[in-house]
Amino acid sequence: MLSDSFGRIHNYLRISVTDMCNLKCIYCMPQETAHSGKSSFMSSGEICGIASVFSELGINKIRITGGEPFVRKDIDKIFYELADLPVSLAVSTNAVLIDRHINVLKDCSVNNINISLDTLNEEEFFYISKSSSLGRILENIILLLENNFTVKINFVVMRGINEDAVCQIASLTKHFPFEARFIEYMPFSGNNWSREKVFSHDEILEKIGDEFDYYKIPDDVHDTSKKYGIEGHAGIIGIISTVTKPFCGECNRLRLTADGKLKNCLFSQGETDLLTAFRKGLDIEDLIRSGLSEKRSERGGQFDNENMINRSMISIGG
Ligand code: SAM
Ligand code: SF4
């Protein structure tokens, strides 16, 4: 079991497989991005070797993330190798390329798919992501639902940029059985965050309440989103309030960056280098345990949003 100094059991690992992406979302990728370079990324064998140590220590859920996982040429191989471990597999993606991998995801039982989608307007989408892939993403979301994958939509709400689309995305849940999750804009290195741009949990809920009759749904103990239903809708709403209402009390997550560093929290300053030790053939269990023992009770011990010391989101892995 992986327990931290507050008695929180950690059974969930998010592995970033790359810090590269085919989109350039303004809230995630700094304009001047220095990629780690392929040789410092974990190879597929290293990802699976390190993941199997975590699995022996009690990790039973792994989410593959990035950057964009599907820009990695060997992503199918990574899924096939991870599928041999006794863990449930999930992936976070922008969905631009996912249609080419549907069969692999089915073969490997990767059923839970989180997809970024921050607007339904082409121009706004281009402003946010510097890409014209909105149509393709929407087609792929429908393809995934037709193939019975469990889909969650992740929408980062930024005041003055896309808050007007909150109800449009919420209205899609009338016919589409996904969870539309609205995420408060979080501060990371190079993402031009300011407090004024955060559209809060309460404001999101108020906006939804202006158009829909919503009701509270019970949350699971490790849920990051606060869930709401809307009368007559096939899907549900979730709100992730990391900035205004942090939810660290029941945290069960660890993160492994694409360059093989353990982060015990999304907001942790400290990192533990697992890859260098793994490449030398050393046992990494003690490193994992000592990295976890340094986990702080809340938000990596960083509460001054304006002066966070951290990587960019794209190099952490969301
Ligand atoms: N490329 C994939 C994607 O877009 O889903 C996976 C990586 S992305 C870094 C993972 C998640 O982090 C996305 O849902 C994205 O919306 C979220 N994210 C990135 N930057 C964020 C920020 N500043 N605040 C809140 N969420 C953020
Ligand atoms: Fe790429 Fe996802 Fe970050 Fe957008 S949020 S830049 S799609 S990694």
CATH superfamily: Aldolase class I
Bound molecules: S-adenosylmethionine, iron/sulfur cluster
Rg over alpha carbons: 19 Å
Helix content: 25-40%
* Helix segment tally: 10
What's the CATH class label? Alpha Beta
Order of helices and strands: EHEHEHEHHEHEHEEEEEEHHH
Estimate the global geometry from the Cα principal axes. Answer: globular
Task: Determine the structural class based on helices, strands and strand pairing.
Answer: alpha/beta
Number of domains: 1
Residue runs with pLDDT of under 50 for 5 or more positions:
none
Assigned CATH architecture = Alpha-Beta Barrel
Strand content: 15-25%
Main sheet properties = 12 strands, mixed
Overall pLDDT level: 94
- For the record, give the distance between the C-alpha atoms at the N and C termini, rounded to a whole number: 24 Å
Strands side by side in the biggest sheet: 7-8-9-6-5-4-3-2-1-10-11-12
How many strands?
12
Write a concise synopsis of the structure shown.
Helix content is 27%, strand content 19%. By secondary structure, it is an alpha/beta fold. The chain has one domain (2-316): TIM Barrel, CATH 3.20.20.70.
